């Protein structure tokens, strides 16, 4: 886990001094494409007679056939943008906004490049090179720093463009394809290459103003992604990725190769549920209520949550249960709690669900949709809650021939996002995966769910009386009878009983392992005995790996944070929410409980129960399918022989 560095102010005067250079680039420059090939722009008007209509010259000289024979092309983005709205001779507000946004983004990029050059020593090397005094021993470092500056400037340009033009976006979408002209010779050439390709895309794809904004923003997103990939193997980037800048006038934050997002919440129109309207599901409801309050401890200045640092924060969880047991109700309750808390605190709240409609037949689009979903929820400027309902239908099992290419893409994106090498848990968001059939979810993806919420619905007689009374409403005169309404839903008492029930496993296969180990070593009251139990579980189910142990220890840390943040802390921001990070951390630390052996054993049993439950169902489904296939084969063979005879 990493903590973001303090942000430096990118001064307005340092940005505005680059306006002239930015305008000059937008007005016109010549660029010879080095990597990409120009699009067929035969419909584009000629700037002078004959130019633009000739076919590209292809040499027949041996040895020169593979050398690029592209000619310099004049790039005039101002004219291109003004011509994108039809025949109106006046510049429209949208066209002007795009031009101003691009000028501002270029100026910000050049200002960051200048700051990077001074911080990295590139500025001194440039001056030595101009004076002809650059030593041979410095040429390698000079080239690497020039490439690093080019990558940084290109990414900041794309980042700022996407951020500044985002408010202009409509529902129109434009597919620009992969960005190819990503050059790293130097910063100016890098920007020329990007603007040349943007000019090509606008000319080929834009027919009205809505498509203009969509095209520019889509290009910026693709450029950011391509540059970030190139940067993974680049050297000398420490002065860029190790620092952060804030542009106050635009409320833009630049943090390395992380895309900036506007701190805007979503207006929720779902039907919220109160905790007392969720019947049964005691542990799931309790953990959801705790998680909603945990999210509110996030510190926007430090960009970190004390719970994420102290342990006990739930970044991903899996909610599973039979159809009709209350998964949707649980989502509505949790989203409602977070929404109410954020309104009191004045925080932006972003809720997003990734559904089956995000799976696209266009190759690569499903993965892009999944990546956009993850990035929106991860945005460090908001409190985020992302849900993936019916994940067994959305994310395909690897190697499953029934899964579409889009489902496989989604699985790969979620696996990387939830527990990949670049995953940083700040504590501002959580992802919930819900399924009626979790055994159909890819094993590796399912194990990336750090917590398990068993959504089993009403269980007891009291639960069924409570849910009947709740759903009947008040428009009747039927007597309640001998029953204390919602007494069984008193959360603390119900949760204590639910946790105690896990002193012994629930699944038969795990219970056999538990009894055998208990008979050999006695009570599981030491780490060595618990480790023996874990090894025995692994021998019974090879899928019980080191990740399972991490998820169990994370769950134990959650139990150590098994306290309620007082309701008044959520209702009166000055008591907790408005405090600085260190004060919040100290206040939470004082409430932390000691870890006991009972907690550890209960969490081992809870997690292993869920894995055995999934494995048993998965194996049973596989066996049933094989039996059905064999029966069909046998019946077909019998019918064939009868027909032949």
Fold blueprint:
Elements: E1 7-9, H1 12-16, H2 19-27, E2 29-31, E3 73-75, H3 77-82, H4 93-120, H5 122-130, H6 139-165, H7 187-205, H8 209-231, H9 238-241, E4 244-247, E5 252-255, H10 282-295, H11 306-310, E6 316-320, H12 327-345, E7 349-353, H13 365-378, E8 383-389, H14 391-394, H15 405-419, E9 429-435, H16 443-446, E10 451-454, H17 461-472, H18 491-500, H19 508-521, H20 527-540, H21 546-560, H22 567-571, H23 581-591, H24 597-644
Parallel strand pairs: 1-4, 6-9, 6-10, 7-8, 8-9
Antiparallel strand pairs: 2-3, 4-5
Helix pairs in contact: 2-4, 4-6, 6-7, 6-8, 7-8, 10-12, 10-18, 13-15, 19-20, 21-24
Domain ATPase AAA-type core: 321-454
Protein name: ATPase family protein associated with various cellular activities (AAA)
Pfam family, one: AAA
Can you give keywords for this protein?
alpha/beta, 3 domains, 3-stranded mixed β-sheet, 10 strands, 52% helix, disordered N terminus
Structure notes:
Strands 7-8-9-6-10 form a 5-stranded parallel β-sheet, sandwiched between helices. Strands 1-4-5 form a 3-stranded mixed β-sheet, with helices on one face. Strands 2-3 form a two-stranded antiparallel ribbon. It has 24 helices and 10 strands. It starts with 6 loop residues before the first strand and ends with a helix. It folds into 3 domains: 7-37 and 72-255, no CATH class; 265-457, 3-Layer(aba) Sandwich (Rossmann fold); 491-644, no CATH class. It is α/β, with parallel strands linked by helices and 645 residues long. The longest helix is centred in the last third of the chain and has 48 residues, at 597-644. 39% of the residues are buried. Residues 321-454 form the ATPase AAA-type core domain. It comes from Shimia isoporae. This is ATPase family protein associated with various cellular activities (AAA). GO terms for molecular function: ATP binding; ATP hydrolysis activity. It holds the Pfam family AAA.
């Amino acid at each position: 886990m990493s903590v973001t560095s303090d942000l430096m102010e990118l001064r307005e005067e340092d940005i505005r001094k680059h306006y002239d250079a930015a305008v000059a680039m937008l007005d016109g420059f010549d660029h010879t494409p080095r990597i990409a090939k120009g699009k067929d722009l035969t419909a584009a008007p000629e700037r002078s007679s004959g130019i633009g209509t000739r076919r590209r010259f292809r040499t027949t000289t041996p040895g020169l056939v593979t050398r690029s024979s592209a000619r310099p092309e004049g790039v005039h983005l101002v004219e291109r943008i003004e011509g994108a709205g039809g025949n109106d001779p006046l510049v429209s507000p949208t066209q002007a906004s795009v031009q101003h946004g691009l000028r501002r983004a270029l100026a910000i990029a050049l200002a960051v490049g200048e700051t990077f050059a001074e911080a990295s020593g590139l500025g001194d090397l440039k001056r030595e090179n101009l004076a002809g005094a650059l030593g041979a021993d410095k040429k390698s470092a000079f080239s690497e720093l020039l490439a690093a500056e080019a990558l940084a400037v290109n990414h900041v340009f794309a980042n700022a463009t996407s951020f500044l033009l985002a408010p202009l976006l409509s529902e129109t979408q434009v597919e620009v394809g992969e960005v190819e002209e990503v050059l790293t010779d130097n910063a100016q050439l890098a920007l020329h290459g990007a603007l040349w390709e943007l000019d090509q895309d606008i000319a080929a794809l834009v027919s009205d103003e809505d498509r203009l904004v969509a095209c520019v923003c889509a290009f910026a997103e693709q450029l950011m992604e391509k540059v970030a990939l190139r940067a993974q193997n680049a050297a000398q980037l420490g002065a860029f990725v190790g620092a952060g800048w804030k542009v106050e006038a635009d409320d833009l934050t630049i943090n390395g190769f992380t895309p900036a997002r506007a701190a805007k919440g979503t207006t929720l129109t779902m039907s919220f549920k109160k905790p007392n309207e969720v019947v049964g599901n005691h542990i799931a409801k309790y953990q959801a209520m705790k998680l909603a309050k945990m999210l509110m401890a996030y510190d926007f200045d430090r960009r970190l949550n004390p719970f994420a640092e102290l342990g006990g924060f739930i970044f991903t969880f899996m909610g599973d249960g039979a159809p009709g047991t209350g998964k949707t109700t649980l989502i509505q309750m949790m989203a409602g709690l977070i929404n109410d808390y954020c309104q009191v605190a004045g925080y932006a709240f972003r809720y997003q669900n990734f559904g089956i409609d995000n799976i696209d037949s266009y190759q690569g689009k499903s993965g892009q949709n999944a990546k956009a979903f993850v990035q929106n929820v991860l945005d460090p400027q908001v409190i985020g809650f992302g849900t993936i309902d019916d994940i067994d239908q959305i994310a395909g099992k690897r190697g499953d021939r029934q899964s579409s290419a889009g489902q496989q893409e989604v699985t790969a994106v979620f696996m990387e996002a939830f527990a990949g090498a670049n995953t940083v848990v700040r504590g501002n968001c959580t992802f919930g995966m819900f399924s009626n059939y979790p055994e159909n979810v890819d094993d590796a993806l399912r194990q990336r769910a750090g917590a398990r919420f068993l959504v089993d619905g009403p269980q007891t007689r009291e639960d069924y009386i409570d849910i009947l009374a709740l759903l009947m409403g008040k428009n009747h005169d039927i007597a309640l009878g001998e029953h204390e309404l919602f007494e069984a839903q008193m959360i603390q008492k119900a949760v204590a009983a639910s946790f105690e029930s896990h002193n012994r496993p629930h699944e038969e296969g795990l219970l056999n392992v538990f009894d055998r180990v208990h008979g050999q070593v006695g009570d599981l009251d030491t780490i060595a005995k618990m480790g023996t139990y874990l090894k025995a579980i692994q021998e019974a189910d090879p899928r019980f790996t080191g990740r399972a142990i991490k998820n169990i220890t994370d769950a134990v840390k959650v139990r150590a944070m098994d306290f309620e943040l007082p309701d008044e802390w959520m209702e009166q921001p000055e008591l907790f929410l408005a405090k600085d990070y260190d004060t919040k951390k100290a206040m939470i630390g004082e409430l932390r409980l000691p870890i006991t052996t009972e907690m550890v054993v209960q969490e081992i049993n809870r997690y292993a129960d869920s894995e055995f439950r999934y494995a048993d169902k998965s194996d049973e489904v596989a066996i049933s399918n094989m039996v059905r296939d064999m029966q069909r084969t046998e019946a077909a063979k019998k019918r064939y022989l009868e027909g032949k005879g």
